Structure formats: structure tokens, C-alpha cells
Amino acid sequence: MTSTFMEVLDTTVVNVSLPHIAGSLSATPDEATWALTSYLVANAIILPMTGWLANRFGRKRLLMGSVAGFTLASFFCGFAPNLPLLIVFRVIQGATGGGLQPLSQAILLEVFPPEERGKAMAFWALGIVVAPMLGPVLGGWLTDSYSWRWVFYINVPIGILALLMTHNFVFDPPYIKRRAGGVDYWGMGMLVVGIGCLQIMLDKGQEEDWFSSHFILTLAILAAVGLVGFVIRELKTEHPIVDLRVFRYRSYAAGVFLMTVLGFVLYGSTVLVPLMLQTLLGYPAVQAGIVMLPRGLGSFLMMPIVGILMSKIEPRRLLGSGIIIASLSFWKFSHLSLDAGYWDFFIPLIVQGAAMGLLFVPLTTITNDPVPKEEIGNATSLFNLMRNIGASIGIASVTTLLSRNQQTHINILGTHVTTYDPQARALIESMTANFIRGGSDPATAQQQAYAAVNGMVGQHAYMLAFNDAFRFMMIMFMLMLPLIFIMKKPQHKGGPVVGH
């Protein structure tokens, strides 16, 4: 869990440091975002190959190599003298970090007996849920107090601890045999092209105005061709780099789809709430991160409880409860206004955090329950990949939705700001009088009044766009409820069975 926490933390900890990185390395803000994109692309490419790599090199050896590579790359990221070198080290960091989540999850599913796997998954999922919450707070504090370079240096002691613990306590199960069979180079190439282009397209789409850009359109075509070719190749080849036949298990297929939506909503809302706090309500970056902490607190308190409940209550009921509770928190967010204060965020966030506990642990349990132990490494790789892809789609979707809906609401609200509307006319006249009293001449005062009213319209439109985005997430979650009926009841209450 230590290595997983470190890797997940790095997906969000850099975000608030980007302006400082750009200034320090003489780069534009757009150029600095490649420090994020390069990491996500490399991470997404390696994730699905983790099961194959573990069988080829040994799981313990791969885990130790990944932790060591991630820790070294983190150090060199902090040491980078310019942006190109930072991007190179971020690629290495993303590639070595890609295997940490599925490897640690597969290890936990194997070493704990069935009656304790719910508790193990609860503890592991705690890192997955809490790390994205702590990232912006920790990143902002380190950057403000020391330097953006400490955002990377902080990984070094955690990495050394994870390496020592892995060396002493993790061992390969007897059925993992290092396979020296043929390498599916065609499959690997199509995976790199498909996933890489998809990730860059999602990360840069909003900046480039999506399909009006030839760059984004080209990426979309390459991603589609690469991924379709990859699926066909993997289903036909004798030694697939990613075994897609694991989707023959009904519960696993439904669970992976649910996890993709969960990644979409979790990471999408992780972007939405701080964005609302900073751009609309005027919170500094660190304060915005602190406002987000109740969600991590809710998960922290709920995860151990869910681990205990897993042995007493049918996991599908817990999962359904999580979906409903999370939907209610988004419904609450969809009714916020410009007058919202700290406590308006506290209750929905802590409820949402508790709901994430009810979602992650039962979902992991039900999804992996029918998968035999020989396939668990491959299954966890795809499970984590789809969560990350869901996260990328979620972030891209909510930022686009915000931009488009804000413009729509500006157009609707703007139609009422005319001299023919009594309320608008009274407001403009009142503000004009205030500016005249402040020393402006009548013509300038009227222009200032119109500008102020237009600013108010823009703010209200932006707030309504945020309400729309949260409402959209609530509907997405509620639409997932029928999938629970497709999934089968786990054979063991305590957790997923990994051997038959």
C-alpha cells in the first residue's frame, strides 16, 4: 500500500505546482502541462502490461524494480535543470509507477485468507482514495513553503521504505513462473499507439478545442485504429501481452465498467470542487485543498467499517448503498450558490468520502471474485487501467462541460440584462449612481456599471455550469445501479476468491 499511495499521490500532487515549474524553468503554462501529460501517458501504457511483465520477470522482482525506478526518477525530476529533462524523467516515473497499483492489489488478494480480504482491500483502497485528496494540499504546502522540487523529493524516503518492506515481506507465489515465451511485439506496439494517443487526446482536447483541431483529430483516429487492432490481435495471438479473455467472467466485466465510471466521477469531482473554490469563490490553492480534506476523512473513517461489514452484509448491497449515497452528495453539490461557505462543502464531501469507501471495497471484491489465481495479476492490471482511463475521460469531460455550459448560461442570462428589463435597469441605474458618487463622470460610470453587471452575469453563469456538471455526475452514478444485478454474489463473504 505504501508504494501504491506514493504513485497515486503523484497523479495530483504536481497540479498546483505547475505555475511555479513553468516560471522556474522558463516555460509557458501550456508547455509545463506536458509534465502531467507525459506521466499519465507512460503510466497508462505500462498498466495493462503489468500481469505479463510479472509472469516474465517475477512479481517481487518487478515490484522492487518499479519502486526503485519510481524513487530514482522522482529524485531526478526534482533535480531537473530544464523542462525537456523534467518531461523525460516524468516519463520514466510514469512507466515505473504504472505497475505499482495492480501489483500491490494482486499481492494483497493472494496473501490474505478469504475471510480477511475485505479488510485488506479496505486498507489498500484507503490509499487509492485518500492520496488524490492529499495531493493538492501537500503539493501546495511544499511549493509555498520550500520549492516545487520538494514535490518530487518527498517520494524518496517513502520509496526507500516501500523498497525495504517489499524486500522483506513480499514473495512470489509458486504458480508464478518466469515465462520465456515469444513476445507479442505487434500487440505491444498497438497498445503504445492506442493508449498513448488516447491519453494525449483526452489531456489536450479542451486546450485545442477538440475535433476542430487537426492534431486532436489525428490522435483520435490513431487511438481508434490502435485500440481496435490491439483487441483483435490479443484475442487471436497465442502469447497475448494482455489477456482480454478475462472479460468472459460476467461479474468482472460489469465490475470493470463500474470502476471506469467511478474513476470518471471521482477524479472529475476532484478537479471540479477545487476549481469552483479557486476561480469562483476566491480561495487560495492551499485553502482549497484544505476544504477538500473532509472527503479523505470520510473515506478514512468508513474504510475500516466497510472491511468489517464485508463479512456480515452481502457486498452487492453495500455497493448499491454506496452508489445511492454518492449520488445524494452530488445532488447536494448541484444546488450550491455563490453564497456557499465552508460548511456547505463539508457535509457533502464527508458523505461522498464515506460513499467511496462503500464503493471501492465491495466493487474490488465482487469484480475479482470469479478470477482464478493464475489470472489475477492480469485482471488487476486491466481493472486499474480502466479506472485511470475513466479518470482521464472524467477530467476532460467536466472541463469541456463547464466551458460549454458557462457560455450557454451567459447567453440565456444576458438576454435579461437590457434597459427594457425593469430589474436590470434599476440595478444599472443604482450602480451608475454609486460610481458617480465615487468620482466618475456619468458616461464612464454607466460603462463601469454595465461592466460590473456583465461580471455578475458571468459569475452566475459559471455557478450554474458547475451545478450542471454535478447533476450530470449524479445521473451517471444512478444509471450504474442496474449493473449490480448483472454481477454474481461473491463465493466468499470476506473477499474475492483467487483460487479454485
Number of helices: 21
CATH topological fold name of the largest domain: Growth Hormone, Chain: A
What proportion of the residues is helical, as a percent range?
over 70%
What's the CATH H-level homologous superfamily of the largest domain?
MFS general substrate transporter like domains
When the domains are counted, the total is 3
CATH architecture of the largest domain: Up-down Bundle
Roughly how many Å is the radius of gyration?
24 Å
CATH class of the largest domain: Mainly Alpha
Compute the separation of the termini in Å. 26 Å
Instruction: Compute the average pLDDT.
Output: 78
Classification by helices and strands: mainly alpha
Instruction: Tell me the major beta sheet.
Output: none
Shape: globular
- Low-pLDDT residue intervals, each spanning 5 or more residues: 493-500
The arrangement of helices and strands along the chain is: HHHHHHHHHHHHHHHHHHHHH
Describe this entry's structure for a reader.
The chain has three domains: 1-183, Growth Hormone, Chain: A, CATH 1.20.1250; 184-240; 245-500, Growth Hormone, Chain: A, CATH 1.20.1250.20. The chain has helices spanning 2-9, 18-24, 29-32, 34-46, 50-57, 59-79, 83-97, 100-111, 117-145, 150-153, 155-169, 185-204, 214-236, 250-280, 285-309, 315-333, 342-368, 376-414, 422-437, 442-478, 483-486. Helices cover 75% and strands 0% of the residues. Helix 4 (34-46) packs parallel to helix 7 (83-97), helix 5 (50-57) crosses helix 6 (59-79) and helix 19 (422-437) packs across helix 20 (442-478). It has 21 helices and no strands. The protein is an all-alpha fold.
